[in-house]
Amino acid sequence: MSISVGKIMGVKIRLHYTWFIIFVFITWTLASFYMPDQYPGLTYEVYWITGFISSVILFSSVLFHELFHTYFALKKGIPVPSITLFLFGGVTQIAEEPQDPDFELKMAFAGPASSFFLSFIFGLAWLLALQLNLPPIITAPLNYGWLINALLGAFNLIPAFPMDGGRILRAAIWKLKKDLIVATRIASNAGGAIAYLFIFFGLFLILFGGLILGFWFILIGWFIKSGAEASLNQTIISQALSDVKISDIMTKEVHVISPNEFISDAVENYFYKYKHGGFPVAEDGNLLGMITIQDIRKVNKERWKELQVKDVMTSSEKLIKSQPEEPVASAFIKLSNHNIGRLPVVKDGKLVGIITRSDIIRAVRVKTELAGKR
Ligand SMILES: [Zn+2]
Fold this sequence. Notes:
By secondary structure, this protein is α+β, with helices and mostly antiparallel strands. It folds into 2 domains: 2-240, no CATH class; 246-369, CBS-domain. The chain contains 13 helices and 9 strands. Residues 65, 69, 111, 156, 164 line the site of zinc ion (ZN).
Protein backbone atom coordinates (compact mmCIF):
# COMPACT_ATOMS: atom_id res chain seq x y z
CA MET A 1 0.00 0.00 0.00
CA SER A 2 2.86 2.38 -0.69
CA ILE A 3 4.83 3.74 -3.64
CA SER A 4 8.57 4.06 -3.98
CA VAL A 5 9.91 7.58 -4.57
CA GLY A 6 13.66 7.12 -4.60
CA LYS A 7 16.75 6.05 -2.70
CA ILE A 8 18.89 7.80 -0.08
CA MET A 9 22.03 6.13 1.33
CA GLY A 10 20.93 3.05 -0.63
CA VAL A 11 17.65 2.85 1.31
CA LYS A 12 14.32 2.83 -0.54
CA ILE A 13 12.04 5.74 0.46
CA ARG A 14 8.37 4.82 0.21
CA LEU A 15 5.17 6.83 0.64
CA HIS A 16 2.20 5.08 2.24
CA TYR A 17 -1.15 5.85 0.60
CA THR A 18 -2.37 7.56 3.82
CA TRP A 19 0.45 10.04 3.31
CA PHE A 20 -1.36 11.72 0.41
CA ILE A 21 -4.59 12.08 2.39
CA ILE A 22 -2.80 13.52 5.40
CA PHE A 23 -0.70 15.84 3.24
CA VAL A 24 -3.82 17.43 1.73
CA PHE A 25 -5.52 17.51 5.13
CA ILE A 26 -2.57 19.20 6.84
CA THR A 27 -2.13 21.76 4.04
CA TRP A 28 -5.84 22.56 4.28
CA THR A 29 -5.75 22.87 8.10
CA LEU A 30 -2.72 25.16 7.92
CA ALA A 31 -4.08 27.34 5.12
CA SER A 32 -7.60 27.64 6.55
CA PHE A 33 -7.02 27.82 10.31
CA TYR A 34 -3.43 27.95 11.57
CA MET A 35 -1.96 30.63 9.26
CA PRO A 36 -4.98 33.02 9.30
CA ASP A 37 -4.90 32.72 13.09
CA GLN A 38 -1.17 33.41 13.42
CA TYR A 39 -0.87 35.96 10.60
CA PRO A 40 -4.21 37.77 10.19
CA GLY A 41 -4.87 40.08 7.25
CA LEU A 42 -3.05 38.22 4.46
CA THR A 43 -4.51 37.06 1.16
CA TYR A 44 -6.07 33.70 0.47
CA GLU A 45 -3.21 32.79 -1.94
CA VAL A 46 -0.53 33.56 0.66
CA TYR A 47 -2.28 31.31 3.21
CA TRP A 48 -2.35 28.41 0.76
CA ILE A 49 1.27 28.89 -0.32
CA THR A 50 2.55 29.11 3.28
CA GLY A 51 0.33 26.12 4.18
CA PHE A 52 1.77 24.09 1.34
CA ILE A 53 5.40 25.03 2.11
CA SER A 54 4.82 24.23 5.79
CA SER A 55 3.39 20.81 4.89
CA VAL A 56 6.46 20.08 2.78
CA ILE A 57 8.62 21.16 5.75
CA LEU A 58 6.69 18.82 8.05
CA PHE A 59 7.15 15.79 5.83
CA SER A 60 10.81 16.57 5.04
CA SER A 61 11.39 16.90 8.77
CA VAL A 62 9.89 13.44 9.34
CA LEU A 63 12.16 12.05 6.62
CA PHE A 64 15.19 13.80 8.16
CA HIS A 65 14.31 12.20 11.51
CA GLU A 66 14.03 8.72 9.97
CA LEU A 67 17.26 9.14 8.02
CA PHE A 68 19.10 9.70 11.29
CA HIS A 69 17.88 6.35 12.64
CA THR A 70 18.90 4.81 9.35
CA TYR A 71 22.35 6.35 9.44
CA PHE A 72 23.06 4.75 12.83
CA ALA A 73 21.70 1.37 11.76
CA LEU A 74 23.76 1.34 8.56
CA LYS A 75 26.88 2.45 10.44
CA LYS A 76 26.49 -0.56 12.72
CA GLY A 77 26.07 -2.80 9.66
CA ILE A 78 22.37 -3.46 10.21
CA PRO A 79 20.59 -3.56 6.85
CA VAL A 80 17.70 -1.12 6.36
CA PRO A 81 15.53 -2.25 3.41
CA SER A 82 13.21 0.78 3.37
CA ILE A 83 11.74 3.83 5.07
CA THR A 84 7.98 4.30 4.74
CA LEU A 85 6.45 7.71 5.35
CA PHE A 86 2.82 7.47 6.38
CA LEU A 87 0.10 8.95 8.56
CA PHE A 88 1.98 10.29 11.59
CA GLY A 89 5.51 10.10 10.43
CA GLY A 90 7.85 7.44 9.33
CA VAL A 91 8.80 3.89 9.95
CA THR A 92 12.34 2.78 9.42
CA GLN A 93 12.23 -0.89 8.64
CA ILE A 94 15.18 -2.62 10.22
CA ALA A 95 16.04 -6.13 9.13
CA GLU A 96 17.08 -7.48 12.52
CA GLU A 97 16.17 -7.31 16.18
CA PRO A 98 18.52 -5.04 18.13
CA GLN A 99 21.75 -6.64 19.28
CA ASP A 100 22.47 -4.80 22.51
CA PRO A 101 20.71 -2.21 24.70
CA ASP A 102 23.43 0.42 24.39
CA PHE A 103 23.16 0.50 20.62
CA GLU A 104 19.35 0.45 20.74
CA LEU A 105 19.49 3.42 23.10
CA LYS A 106 21.77 5.37 20.76
CA MET A 107 19.74 4.57 17.66
CA ALA A 108 16.38 5.38 19.28
CA PHE A 109 17.71 8.66 20.62
CA ALA A 110 19.19 9.71 17.25
CA GLY A 111 15.73 10.49 15.80
CA PRO A 112 14.41 12.91 18.45
CA ALA A 113 17.88 14.47 18.78
CA SER A 114 17.92 15.18 15.03
CA SER A 115 14.44 16.75 15.28
CA PHE A 116 15.53 19.05 18.12
CA PHE A 117 18.61 19.98 16.12
CA LEU A 118 16.49 20.83 13.07
CA SER A 119 14.15 22.83 15.29
CA PHE A 120 17.14 24.86 16.46
CA ILE A 121 18.25 25.54 12.86
CA PHE A 122 14.71 26.62 11.82
CA GLY A 123 14.53 28.80 14.92
CA LEU A 124 17.76 30.59 13.99
CA ALA A 125 16.62 31.05 10.38
CA TRP A 126 13.28 32.41 11.62
CA LEU A 127 14.93 34.97 13.94
CA LEU A 128 17.24 36.03 11.12
CA ALA A 129 14.27 36.43 8.73
CA LEU A 130 12.48 38.56 11.33
CA GLN A 131 15.58 40.76 11.69
CA LEU A 132 15.69 41.23 7.91
CA ASN A 133 11.98 42.14 7.89
CA LEU A 134 11.19 39.40 5.37
CA PRO A 135 7.49 38.89 4.46
CA PRO A 136 5.28 36.27 6.22
CA ILE A 137 5.44 34.02 3.18
CA ILE A 138 9.02 33.28 4.34
CA THR A 139 8.81 33.81 8.10
CA ALA A 140 5.60 31.81 8.61
CA PRO A 141 6.97 28.47 7.28
CA LEU A 142 10.24 29.00 9.22
CA ASN A 143 8.26 29.69 12.39
CA TYR A 144 6.22 26.54 11.73
CA GLY A 145 9.46 24.62 11.00
CA TRP A 146 11.00 25.12 14.42
CA LEU A 147 7.69 24.48 16.17
CA ILE A 148 6.85 21.29 14.30
CA ASN A 149 10.35 19.83 14.75
CA ALA A 150 10.24 20.52 18.47
CA LEU A 151 6.83 18.76 18.58
CA LEU A 152 8.14 15.89 16.47
CA GLY A 153 11.06 15.39 18.84
CA ALA A 154 8.81 15.55 21.89
CA PHE A 155 6.09 13.33 20.37
CA ASN A 156 8.60 10.61 19.52
CA LEU A 157 9.94 10.67 23.07
CA ILE A 158 6.55 9.49 24.43
CA PRO A 159 7.55 6.24 26.17
CA ALA A 160 5.22 4.03 24.11
CA PHE A 161 6.87 1.16 22.29
CA PRO A 162 7.49 0.97 19.30
CA MET A 163 8.00 4.75 19.29
CA ASP A 164 11.49 6.09 20.03
CA GLY A 165 10.66 6.91 23.65
CA GLY A 166 9.35 3.36 24.07
CA ARG A 167 12.53 1.98 22.53
CA ILE A 168 14.58 4.04 24.96
CA LEU A 169 12.44 2.70 27.83
CA ARG A 170 12.81 -0.86 26.54
CA ALA A 171 16.59 -0.52 26.21
CA ALA A 172 16.81 0.82 29.77
CA ILE A 173 14.74 -2.07 31.20
CA TRP A 174 16.64 -4.51 29.02
CA LYS A 175 19.91 -3.24 30.46
CA LEU A 176 18.50 -3.56 33.97
CA LYS A 177 16.78 -6.96 33.66
CA LYS A 178 19.04 -8.42 30.98
CA ASP A 179 15.98 -9.84 29.19
CA LEU A 180 14.82 -8.42 25.87
CA ILE A 181 11.42 -10.12 25.92
CA VAL A 182 10.49 -8.98 29.43
CA ALA A 183 11.63 -5.48 28.50
CA THR A 184 9.55 -5.48 25.30
CA ARG A 185 6.47 -6.66 27.21
CA ILE A 186 6.79 -3.88 29.78
CA ALA A 187 7.44 -1.23 27.11
CA SER A 188 4.48 -2.46 25.01
CA ASN A 189 2.18 -2.40 28.04
CA ALA A 190 3.31 1.14 28.82
CA GLY A 191 2.51 2.00 25.20
CA GLY A 192 -0.99 0.53 25.54
CA ALA A 193 -1.64 2.47 28.75
CA ILE A 194 -0.47 5.76 27.23
CA ALA A 195 -2.63 5.10 24.16
CA TYR A 196 -5.73 4.83 26.37
CA LEU A 197 -4.77 8.04 28.16
CA PHE A 198 -4.64 9.82 24.79
CA ILE A 199 -8.00 8.36 23.72
CA PHE A 200 -9.74 9.24 26.99
CA PHE A 201 -8.26 12.72 26.98
CA GLY A 202 -9.48 13.14 23.36
CA LEU A 203 -13.01 12.06 24.34
CA PHE A 204 -12.88 14.42 27.30
CA LEU A 205 -11.88 17.32 25.02
CA ILE A 206 -14.70 16.52 22.57
CA LEU A 207 -17.21 16.47 25.43
CA PHE A 208 -16.08 19.93 26.44
CA GLY A 209 -16.09 21.45 22.98
CA GLY A 210 -12.54 20.88 21.73
CA LEU A 211 -13.67 18.86 18.71
CA ILE A 212 -10.64 19.06 16.38
CA LEU A 213 -7.99 18.78 19.09
CA GLY A 214 -9.94 15.93 20.70
CA PHE A 215 -10.11 14.15 17.37
CA TRP A 216 -6.32 14.45 16.98
CA PHE A 217 -5.73 12.99 20.44
CA ILE A 218 -7.98 10.01 19.65
CA LEU A 219 -6.22 9.44 16.33
CA ILE A 220 -2.78 9.57 17.98
CA GLY A 221 -3.99 7.24 20.76
CA TRP A 222 -5.28 4.78 18.21
CA PHE A 223 -1.98 4.99 16.32
CA ILE A 224 0.05 4.27 19.48
CA LYS A 225 -2.32 1.45 20.48
CA SER A 226 -2.04 -0.42 17.18
CA GLY A 227 1.75 -0.11 17.29
CA ALA A 228 1.86 -1.41 20.87
CA GLU A 229 -0.38 -4.36 19.98
CA ALA A 230 1.66 -5.34 16.94
CA SER A 231 4.90 -5.25 18.89
CA LEU A 232 3.37 -7.21 21.77
CA ASN A 233 2.27 -9.91 19.31
CA GLN A 234 5.79 -10.06 18.00
CA THR A 235 6.99 -10.44 21.60
CA ILE A 236 4.54 -13.26 22.32
CA ILE A 237 5.70 -15.07 19.22
CA SER A 238 9.36 -14.68 20.13
CA GLN A 239 8.58 -15.70 23.70
CA ALA A 240 6.76 -18.85 22.59
CA LEU A 241 9.66 -19.67 20.33
CA SER A 242 12.51 -18.49 22.51
CA ASP A 243 13.86 -21.98 23.17
CA VAL A 244 12.94 -23.53 19.83
CA LYS A 245 15.59 -24.01 17.18
CA ILE A 246 14.94 -24.10 13.44
CA SER A 247 16.10 -27.73 13.28
CA ASP A 248 13.29 -28.65 15.75
CA ILE A 249 10.45 -27.63 13.46
CA MET A 250 11.84 -27.45 9.90
CA THR A 251 10.74 -29.87 7.19
CA LYS A 252 13.60 -32.28 6.63
CA GLU A 253 12.26 -34.28 3.70
CA VAL A 254 12.45 -31.58 1.10
CA HIS A 255 11.51 -32.03 -2.54
CA VAL A 256 14.56 -30.79 -4.38
CA ILE A 257 14.66 -29.84 -8.05
CA SER A 258 17.73 -30.45 -10.18
CA PRO A 259 19.22 -27.35 -11.88
CA ASN A 260 19.12 -29.10 -15.28
CA GLU A 261 15.41 -29.87 -15.19
CA PHE A 262 13.37 -28.10 -17.89
CA ILE A 263 10.86 -25.58 -16.57
CA SER A 264 7.97 -27.50 -18.14
CA ASP A 265 9.02 -30.67 -16.27
CA ALA A 266 9.53 -28.77 -13.01
CA VAL A 267 6.01 -27.32 -13.29
CA GLU A 268 4.51 -30.71 -14.08
CA ASN A 269 6.46 -32.88 -11.61
CA TYR A 270 6.85 -30.50 -8.67
CA PHE A 271 4.65 -27.38 -8.65
CA TYR A 272 1.46 -29.18 -9.81
CA LYS A 273 2.22 -32.34 -7.87
CA TYR A 274 3.22 -31.04 -4.42
CA LYS A 275 1.47 -27.63 -4.61
CA HIS A 276 4.23 -25.68 -2.86
CA GLY A 277 4.97 -22.10 -3.88
CA GLY A 278 8.69 -22.74 -4.24
CA PHE A 279 11.37 -25.42 -4.21
CA PRO A 280 15.07 -25.45 -3.43
CA VAL A 281 17.40 -26.25 -6.31
CA ALA A 282 20.28 -28.49 -5.32
CA GLU A 283 22.86 -30.86 -6.76
CA ASP A 284 24.57 -33.56 -4.64
CA GLY A 285 23.01 -31.94 -1.56
CA ASN A 286 24.57 -28.53 -2.27
CA LEU A 287 22.06 -25.68 -2.37
CA LEU A 288 22.30 -23.81 -5.68
CA GLY A 289 19.20 -21.64 -5.43
CA MET A 290 15.42 -21.49 -5.10
CA ILE A 291 12.75 -21.51 -7.76
CA THR A 292 9.30 -20.07 -7.04
CA ILE A 293 6.04 -19.65 -8.95
CA GLN A 294 6.90 -15.94 -9.28
CA ASP A 295 10.21 -16.81 -10.99
CA ILE A 296 8.42 -19.05 -13.48
CA ARG A 297 5.67 -16.53 -14.16
CA LYS A 298 8.30 -14.11 -15.42
CA VAL A 299 9.07 -16.50 -18.30
CA ASN A 300 6.92 -16.77 -21.40
CA LYS A 301 5.11 -20.10 -21.50
CA GLU A 302 6.48 -20.94 -24.98
CA ARG A 303 10.01 -21.00 -23.52
CA TRP A 304 9.22 -23.45 -20.71
CA LYS A 305 10.46 -26.35 -22.86
CA GLU A 306 13.82 -24.72 -23.73
CA LEU A 307 14.81 -23.05 -20.44
CA GLN A 308 16.16 -24.95 -17.47
CA VAL A 309 15.58 -24.38 -13.78
CA LYS A 310 19.06 -22.90 -13.34
CA ASP A 311 18.22 -20.17 -15.90
CA VAL A 312 15.36 -18.69 -13.90
CA MET A 313 16.07 -19.61 -10.27
CA THR A 314 17.29 -17.12 -7.68
CA SER A 315 20.87 -18.17 -7.08
CA SER A 316 22.06 -19.21 -3.65
CA GLU A 317 24.20 -16.08 -3.06
CA LYS A 318 21.12 -13.88 -3.38
CA LEU A 319 18.93 -16.00 -1.11
CA ILE A 320 17.99 -15.24 2.46
CA LYS A 321 19.00 -18.43 4.29
CA SER A 322 18.98 -19.78 7.80
CA GLN A 323 20.96 -22.30 9.82
CA PRO A 324 19.64 -25.28 11.79
CA GLU A 325 21.02 -23.95 15.10
CA GLU A 326 19.36 -20.54 14.69
CA PRO A 327 16.38 -19.67 16.94
CA VAL A 328 13.01 -19.87 15.15
CA ALA A 329 12.26 -16.27 16.17
CA SER A 330 15.11 -15.14 13.94
CA ALA A 331 13.65 -17.06 10.97
CA PHE A 332 10.30 -15.40 11.69
CA ILE A 333 11.90 -11.94 11.56
CA LYS A 334 13.65 -12.76 8.28
CA LEU A 335 10.41 -14.03 6.71
CA SER A 336 8.43 -10.96 7.81
CA ASN A 337 11.02 -8.36 6.92
CA HIS A 338 11.67 -9.74 3.46
CA ASN A 339 8.04 -10.72 2.93
CA ILE A 340 8.90 -14.23 1.77
CA GLY A 341 7.20 -17.55 2.41
CA ARG A 342 10.07 -19.97 2.99
CA LEU A 343 13.72 -20.12 3.96
CA PRO A 344 16.15 -22.83 2.98
CA VAL A 345 18.06 -24.19 5.98
CA VAL A 346 21.72 -24.67 5.15
CA LYS A 347 24.66 -26.18 7.00
CA ASP A 348 28.14 -25.92 5.43
CA GLY A 349 26.56 -25.20 2.03
CA LYS A 350 24.42 -28.36 2.22
CA LEU A 351 20.65 -28.10 2.19
CA VAL A 352 19.33 -29.75 5.38
CA GLY A 353 15.72 -28.56 5.39
CA ILE A 354 13.23 -25.84 4.70
CA ILE A 355 11.22 -23.66 7.08
CA THR A 356 7.97 -21.90 6.14
CA ARG A 357 5.61 -19.41 7.74
CA SER A 358 3.09 -22.19 8.36
CA ASP A 359 5.73 -24.31 10.16
CA ILE A 360 6.28 -21.39 12.53
CA ILE A 361 2.57 -20.60 13.02
CA ARG A 362 1.91 -24.27 13.81
CA ALA A 363 4.78 -24.31 16.33
CA VAL A 364 3.48 -21.14 18.03
CA ARG A 365 -0.03 -22.63 18.28
CA VAL A 366 1.21 -25.88 19.82
CA LYS A 367 3.52 -24.01 22.20
CA THR A 368 0.90 -21.54 23.40
CA GLU A 369 -1.75 -24.28 23.82
CA LEU A 370 0.63 -26.35 25.89
CA ALA A 371 1.90 -23.35 27.86
CA GLY A 372 1.91 -24.01 31.60
CA LYS A 373 1.07 -27.69 31.09
CA ARG A 374 4.43 -29.13 31.88
ZN1 LIG B 1 12.11 8.10 15.50
